# Entry
Amino acid sequence: MINTLLDDLKPQPERLYGRQRGHPLRPRQQRLLDEALPRVTFNAFQNPHNGFSKPVKKIFLEIGFGNGEHAFEQAAHHPDVGYIASEVFDNGLCSLLSRIIPEGEEATAPPPENLRLWGEDARILLRELPDQCLDRAYLMFPDPWPKARHAKRRFIHPDNIRQMARLLKPGALWRVASDHPVYQEWVNDVMTQQSLFDAPAPALERPSDWSATRYEAKAFREGRQPFYWTFVRRG
# Structure
């Protein structure tokens, strides 16, 4: 069935998401969005290495960081990396902002030296970045869009695969995780039909250098098996 969908898959809509929120924001959360987010938003599109408060050797991108646990820990574990963390949901942005901005300093605290956020549809950012600027990318537990008619909205899509191949350097890693059976089947099928990335079978245990997330913990509590893929950009 998925093969047929791929053959007939329509181009993605211009925007997958707009700014959204799951529940009303508390006063501090609103201040984080209004006062802190503009100061930590990534904006060095022509030369991403210039988008951070200190010199960085590599650039990593995380697409859809959820509550921010993975992005926060990975940025801390790689201090020589400029880490761009993208998320459209206000509550997720507030979750990560609350980790990096002290209480009461929403308008004054300097941004982390090597972490920047992007609060819009990630594909807008991808279109602005230059060729072969990324050393690694992450797509951690994305929205599965499980209904067949919504397949065109899944981030693992031929349009986005080509874009990621443009941005990642030869030999760079694209790490993807999902606990949803429909999405797992979709990723396996789509990635085995493309020629831009080496696509080995997923691991069933989280590799030691990946950070845990709340979505992963929820999957295990509810009896779902996450898959962990490491795709390698071909030269």
